[in-house]
Amino acid sequence: MKNSNVIVGKSYSFFIVFLLFIFSLLIIHCFFCRLKSKEKTTTSEIEKTTQETTQETTREIILKLIKNNPTITGKELAEKTGLTTDGVKYHLNKLREQGVIKHVGATKKGYWEIRKGNENNE
Q: Which tens digit of pLDDT belongs to each residue from 80-105?
């Protein structure tokens, strides 16, 4: 009878050690998951800030070009900014939505107008 109690006691001890090992692995895993999520948040915040800064700078360049040549075309803006024509359209639409610029006249014969109060937005 004594031998069977020793075997049960040893296997019980082994089971507890095994559970502690699994528990410690779980804790380590959770620690690294949290660390990784903080890194992702920081990286995404940096990317968002960089994107906002780049867009503001692009819009400032577009505004300067329009101020210097109100009859400038989208194609010319694309060539001078290094953007695609779709990229220029995107920024022009955003500037229109914000009430910063307005296109006056026909598409080919018209000109860009920087609205009052936005002249210094460059």
A: 989 999 999 999 999 999 999 999 99
Q: 2-114 belongs to which CATH class? A: mainly alpha
- Say how far apart CA 119 and CA 69 lie, in whole Å: 14
Section 60-78 average pLDDT: 93
Within 8 A by CB and 6+ apart from 59, the residues are: 91, 94, 95, 100
Q: Please answer whether residues 63 and 95 qualify as being in contact, where contact means their C-beta atoms are separated by less than 8 angstroms.
A: yes
Domain-by-domain residue ranges, the chain?
2-114
The interaxial angle of helices 2-68 and 74-81, nearest 10 deg, is 120
Which residues make beta-bridge pairs with 107? none
Confidence class of residue 39 from pLDDT cuts 50, 70 and 90?
low
